[in-house]
Amino acid sequence: MAYPATDDKAHGPETSYPREKVKVLLLENVNQEAVNLFRANGYTNVKHLPAALTEEELIVEIKDAHILGIRSKTQVNKAVLERADKLLAIGCFCIGTNQVDLAAATRKGIAVFNAPYSNTRSVAELAIGAMIMLIRRIPEKNRLAHAGTWSKDAKNCYELRGKTLGIIGYGNIGSQLSVLAESLGMRVQYFDTQKKLPMGNAQPLASLAALLETSDIITIHTPATKQTQNLINRETLAQCKRGALFINYARGEVADVDALKWALEEGILSGVALDVYPEEPEKNGDIFTTPLQNMANVLLTPHIGGSTQEAQADIGNDVSTKLVGFIETGTTLGSHTIPSLNLPMQESTHRILHIHKNVPGVLSSINTVLSQNGVNILGQYLKTNDAIGYAVLDIDVPLTGNAIKLLKKVHDTIKIRVLY
């Protein structure tokens, strides 16, 4: 992997706050690609820890951090954010952001980024592998072979070709899985609460029930929300085509594992593959239990859907690039908290970022302060969401200390930052 050089031209204008003083805290063994990219861009104050931290530990570590990088285990709640006085941005080096209190981060003007597309291929490939393993009943044949029993039998073993795959949630992973499955000769249908353009010959269905009743293999790829909590339960499983296979490589909360055990025992399902669980161990080596252990034709993996070298490297590059872009230019493309702006660099200017509550009159007050201090605005950008406004101003002269103080006093100001 090639990284940009660290000379001033590669970095653009010299930042008002030296890069080497920006404290970067990376947890949960975030991929080395992220560390390399930060250092290549002049951010040498990087602390790279191998595991998640408890709330108490994180409060201590985050006190002086400007950038926080996490994966899925670290919980960044309101109590943590209240102590993060210097924090500018959080990078979730994974698909989701549910481990971060986004509302609290928004109120503090902290940008939150993630990598929603970087591991889609890894998860989709694993799902295809699970389908093949289950439909050929490999788990039990593997167990018997290890125990010294030869069981060469075609009973209840099938090909994927010609089978109907039902995909619940037709987002980035679901749609890519759709393409792979169709290339294997499967018929693909899907259900999503939002209208989604089908890939290839996939067919959208009007209801979850219609999908469950007609699919030989069911795979779920939805986020964890109140609406999807235990979406797969006894009631919905009872609607399944008898003998169907079920795969959950999405979120543990979307499927009731006790209900899955019941469906296996009743013969409603003939196989299950899980990679995610309602409760998961904190670290490698911890005790793990689930009601589906030691059941026939069940594949259990330890949340490794996105755990490939390619996916983790892509995630490391994607999220760290977004974080560096925000720190150096104010670009918020992909942020879940700060309104999205993709900002061009302006030559011979000085840039100010102003994050404020979304109320009338703030931009007018900012312009008044600058005008009274003899500052000419060469470029101005504003984007708002329901909670906050994000103003980026390119000006012709450096701000004086007095002007900065006055801008901080503008009503409903959350955060101000002078980039260069």
List the helices and strands and how they pair.
Elements: H1 8-11, E1 24-26, H2 32-40, E2 46-48, H3 55-62, E3 67-70, H4 78-82, E4 89-92, H5 102-107, E5 111-113, H6 120-135, H7 138-146, E6 164-168, H8 172-183, E7 187-191, E8 203-204, H9 208-214, E9 217-220, H10 234-237, E10 244-248, H11 257-265, E11 269-274, E12 298-300, H12 309-329, E13 350-357, H13 362-372, E14 377-384, E15 388-395, H14 401-408, E16 413-418
Parallel strand pairs: 1-2, 1-3, 3-4, 4-5, 6-7, 6-9, 7-8, 9-10, 10-11, 11-12
Antiparallel strand pairs: 13-15, 13-16, 14-15
Helix pairs in contact: 2-12, 6-8
Task: Explain what the structure shows.
- This protein has a 7-stranded parallel sheet, sandwiched between helices.
- It is elongated and about 85 Å long.
- It starts with 7 loop residues before the first helix and ends with a strand.
- α4 links the parallel β3 and β4.
- The protein is built from 14 helices and 16 strands.
- The N terminus is likely disordered.
- The protein is an alpha/beta fold and 420 residues long.
- Helix content is 31%, strand content 18%.
- The chain folds into 3 domains: 149 residues, Rossmann fold (3-Layer(aba) Sandwich), CATH 3.40.50.720; 181 residues, Rossmann fold (3-Layer(aba) Sandwich); 78 residues, Alpha-Beta Plaits (2-Layer Sandwich).
